[in-house]
Fold this protein.
Amino acid sequence: MSSLERTILLNLVFLFILYGTTWAHGDDNVFSNVTYDRQSLLIGGKRHLLFSGSIHYPRSPAEMWPDIIKKAKKGGLNVIQTYVFWNIHEPVEGQFNFEGRNDLVRFVKLIQEHNMFVTLRLGPFIQGEWNFGGFPVWLREVKDITFRTNNPQFKYYMKRYAKMIVNMMKKEKLFASQGGPIILSQIENEYNNIQLAFEEAGKSYVRWAGKMAVGLNTGVPWVMCKQKDAPDPVINSCNGRNCGDTFTGPNGPNKPFLWTENWTAQYRVFGDPPSQRTAEDLAFAVARFFSKNGTLVNYYMYHGGTNYGRTASAFVTTRYYDEAPLDEYGLEREPKYGHLRDLHRALNLSKKALLWGSYSVQYLRKSLEARVYEIPGTNVCAAFLSNIATRITLTGYFRGVEYSLPPRSISILPDCKTVVYNTQRINTQHNARNYVLRDESNRNMHWTMFQEKIPKLKQSPIKTEGPMDHLNMTKDTSDYLWYTTILRLHVDDLPLRHDIRPIISIQSLGHAVHAFVNDVYVGSDHGDKIEKSFHLKKPITLKAGTNHISLLAMTIGLPDSGVYLERRLSGIRQIRVLGLNLGTLDLSSNEWGHKVGLLGERLQIFNDHGSQKVKWLSAKGSKGTPLTWYKRYFDSPHGDGPVALDFSKMGKGHAWVNGESIGRYWVSYLSPLGSPSQSLYHVPRAFLKPTNNLLVFFEETGGDPQSVVVLTVNRETICGYVSEAHPPHVKSWVREKGEIRAIMEEMKPSVRLKCPDKNKVMKKIDFVSYGDPSGVCGNFTRGTCHSPLSENIVQKACFGKNSCKIPVTQDTLGTLECPRGVAKTLAVQAICGTKKRSSE
């Protein structure tokens, strides 16, 4: 064999190794068996870098799914991850619901239509800030059951459920082994958090769960997140914010590095201040993970959506992960969305080296390192230059070229020469969310009201000695449970002085209670996410004779995690009256009546049919009235933008539009910053009709219904904030692919603005400063230096246009003197709107 023939043969072998599976399997969209090794998952024998996002089908109407999935793919994702929610699919044992936004099969097929993969997290325990961790409440009624351990009753129901879901997917041929999109399934969820409590029974349960799942024969791998002893062949994966540094790796030499939850922010509970996670921090964590052998990252959440109805777990707000790349309304949150999209693009340019290359680490200087992937004998090479120092920019030499890296940042070099991305340098635009009051939806507001009746002991159907457990009574069919009793007093039992009043003392295991004495509202109290129990003490007015005590207790979602979920207690435990002449009276052993739910709930007065079953009165002057249902009709706002309701001047309650629950509201519960955790509530367009939309809400403590208005939501405030920070000069990049050249062109510091709607233009440029401006999109201010020329230049380039580009250079924007060490920056803020017609 000649040297030329040998060279050709070696090249063919290399190309077959690199591309052979593509030749064998054709188009990337053809799915088949999924296997794995230490390096990655192999789908039909082909390696992939997998960028995944959690999108939960019941947290958005089915009508929103196509747009959300389309935006996820546009953001560089090729996988969608979702839980499967047992309690919405089997709310009553043996009665199933897979309709509407519960249509799991439709959701998975839609993802397949977008040529994306799916990770199906069966659980059945999911946590997910979801009511009861995803378990149906009827499961706790099974005799002798203990959840999530080596308990025969629990294992029976868990296997039955898992088999049902798997068979449903198989029937529709949705596993990759059948040509479908599902490439991974998950059994259990973060079990290590509670495993020690069950000792040996916990270990046995993990082994059983893994064996049971594998025995369902899906043809795709199973994962257990945060499970150090995941039994082979189940893969253990990481959940957290920084799995590139905190994950010690899989528990087997042939398992890949998978990151199943990269938290894009923090879910919020009532009483929480806003939570944020910057785009730069997210990008650093992802680049770090892929630089250290990672091949799959999942953003939890990529789109959080809304906890409709009573689906949120204890104290969790209705809005879920609004700070994700796609916000609650499905709008792109910039710069997080765009910065991650650019990251995925840079990583894909490095794909060959990452998936087939050998790995090495070079320490360039303190806090500066290079992680390199290359295929020997070829020019395939990718490098990650990391500055792990948190405060200082570092400069170092890699392969003879000097590179400068901002603090805590990673530069990606897909050819080991050219920086195409730095996690700290954002080149995408920013945006801010706006809420617009819509006249067509708020004119002629006519509010009517219906007063919820306060029951007394004789009107309560279930009577016992002492108060019963809340959840045992309601079975979670309602948040609300009335506790009623009577207190008979002689005139001599009452305080002699009229300025001294008795005190009612109520101890409860949560979550909140409203107290009434003789039909008079005396006050409320509540627990919180950490300490759900609380102690209400309020002065009351009593009379000689019979006094009626009525307590409306409630849960605000059920707990979603921890050991012995099936044994959790809730509701009122002790009731005493202090300050009487005869001393303290303990009413805990009284005869107590119980009444589940509200009259308005039972009659379903929140829909058109049910609302006709009661008499509604004018709500004029009703501000501050507790236990009141309010109703009005409104027309849909013009256009197709998202819709929201403003409850900022109400208290606590639940709202419905056209019979569809938009969730719990609780604006009277203020965060330490003095503002509510959530005051605006999403109303999906899918819930609305063109006219005569029925809005009903139940207000528990009082507020002003006239203040509840309809808004539309947009992200038409767009911004750029770019500094003069050139990438290193590298002469050899010109020989590389056109895509790298294109990215290099994009990396030249420029402000690029584009209205989110192609039919809209920048109708106002309301901030421009080239110098050292500060602030964020929606709230910029000038600094100590500013170029007056920059305003005219930006106005000319951008006003009246759908998009524009302004190079950030002194040649373009004017020479100016700034303090030494200050990076000259251009900040621009523009407002998009409909282009005016020439006749206007």
Summary: The domain at 435-450+602-714 is CATH 2.60.120.260 (Jelly Rolls). Residues 147 and 154 are 6 Å apart (CA to CA). The two ends are 80 Å apart (CA to CA). The longest strand covers residues 709-723.
